[in-house]
Design brief:
By secondary structure, the chain is an alpha+beta fold. The chain has one domain: 2,3-Dihydroxybiphenyl 1,2-Dioxygenase, domain 1 (Roll), CATH 3.10.180.10. The chain is built from 2 helices and 8 strands; from the N terminus they run βαββββαβββ. Strand 6 and strand 7 form a beta hairpin.
Length: 125
């Protein structure tokens, strides 16, 4: 049974200068902004999402160290608790489930190479 059951994946990049990163991904690479749309200045934003097909590229502001090595891949799952249990059963560590600001449950871990990843359940309703 596959743990990841949703087609949409989210890649999060932690950034220091939101405005310059938005300009790069929007104006240079041409990615459409999913959230928040229509702003002329993104410097005060802590979270900006771009559409990349079935993948969301999210910029998370407030990075305190070198943003080049701050990333996380978020996989959407039907049930975070069940997916977490399967990961643990496969002999891999993953953190406890916590609730995001939008009410969605999430658990975070490191893959065998040390890359950050998370499993997230979409908020119902």
């Amino acid at each position: 049974m596959a743990i990841v059951s949703k087609t949409q994946t989210e890649v999060i990049l932690f950034v220091q200068d939101m405005n310059s990163k938005v300009r790069f991904y929007r104006d240079v690479l041409g990615l459409p902004i999913r959230y928040p749309k229509g702003l002329s200045d993104y410097s005060g934003e802590i979270w900006v999402e771009f559409v990349m097909g079935d993948t969301i590229l999210a910029l998370h502001g407030g990075a305190e160290s070198n943003p080049d090595d701050l990333h996380e891949i978020v996989f959407r799952v039907d049930d975070v608790e069940q997916a977490r249990a399967a990961i643990i059963k496969a002999d891999h560590d993953i953190g406890e489930v916590r609730t995001l600001e939008d009410g969605a449950p999430i658990a975070q871990g490191l893959d065998p190479a040390g890359h950050r990843y998370a499993i997230r359940e979409d908020k119902e309703g």
